[in-house]
Amino acid sequence: MRAIGGIWRWRHNPLRRGTDLAEAWVALSALLLVLFVAPVAGLVIGTVAQGVLQQAVREQRGTRHEVTATVVREVPGSPLDLDPETATGRETRTRVVADWTAPDGTAQHGTVLAGLEVPHGGDHFAIWTDGHGRPAARPLDSVTATTHAVLAGFGAALLTAGAVEGGRRLIVWRMVRRRYARLDRAWDRVGPDWGRTGTGC
Questions:
Q1: Do the beta carbons of residue 80 and residue 94 sit within 8 Å?
Q2: Contact between 172 and 164 (Cβ < 8 Å)
Q3: Is residue 128 within 8 Å of residue 85, measured between CB atoms?
Q4: How many CA atoms lie within 13 A of 189 on its CB side?
Q5: Alpha helices, H only, 11-141
Q6: For residues 157 and 43, what is the distance between their CA atoms, to the nearest angstrom?
Q7: Is there a contact between 157 and 38 (Cβ–Cβ < 8 Å)?
Q8: CB-CB neighbours of 168 under 10 Å
Q9: CA separation for the pair 149, 66 (Å, rounded)
Q10: CA 97 to CA 111: how far, in whole Å?
């Protein structure tokens, strides 16, 4: 609104310099870009990210399988870890040696992370594997993918707005420098005679 007020104020002002009106137009243009282009950029980036992430969700759901593993023994000195892939990020996991059956029917044995605070031999827990039974990360879920897409869109809108504001400041800075340079040149022309008028020198 200040940009519009600036243009209106400078329209017929006798003290108006060309740069004053130009600065007001730059401010109005930047405002319009922030109001209209930044949201569109955020929407486009968010939509693209949503499509890519949902495709990743479908691919991971098709290639990763949840199977039941059986604890053989806990790995000595295994610290408790927090699983960053859970919804809350607070699920504790312990490193154990376990047996499980792969989706293709082959028996598997190895060290994995179990969602058990105090695992005992024979305890059952779920793990994610690929089609050959190798341990894999939990597949991305649809809600998390949508959250990431929204954040990507919001970030793109903020970056666009920041770039527009940065461009506006750069343009105004260059205009002010040119204005000061013109003032310096004008002062150099009249400066040597300053204060001598009417002194009889």
A1: yes
A2: no
A3: no
A4: 5
A5: 18-32, 38-63
A6: 8
A7: yes
A8: 19
A9: 26
A10: 4
DSSP bridge pairs for 26? none
Q: Which of 3, 11, 17 is nearest to 179 (CA)?
A: 17
What tokens does 97 get? Answer: 């040696």
For 50-108, the pLDDT digits (tens) are: 999 999 999 998 889 999 898 888 887 655 555 555 544 445 678 888 999 888 888 98
Ramachandran category for residue 150: left, alpha or beta (phi over 0 → left; psi -120 to 50 → alpha): alpha
Q: What is the token pair recorded at 52?
A: 């890519």
Map tokens 């150099």 to a residue. 188
Closest CA to 70 of 125, 128, 138: 125
Phi (first) and psi of residue 67, to 5 degrees: -125, 165
Q: Which residues contact 47 (CB under 8 A, 6 or more apart)?
A: 149, 153
The helix or strand, by DSSP H or E, that contains position 100, with its residue range, turns out to be: strand 92-101
pLDDT digits (tens, 9 = 90+) for 170-185: 998 998 888 888 888 8
CA distance 101 to 106: 6
Q: Shortest CA distance to 65 belongs to which of 101, 29, 113? A: 101
Q: Judge if pTM exceeds 0.85.
A: no
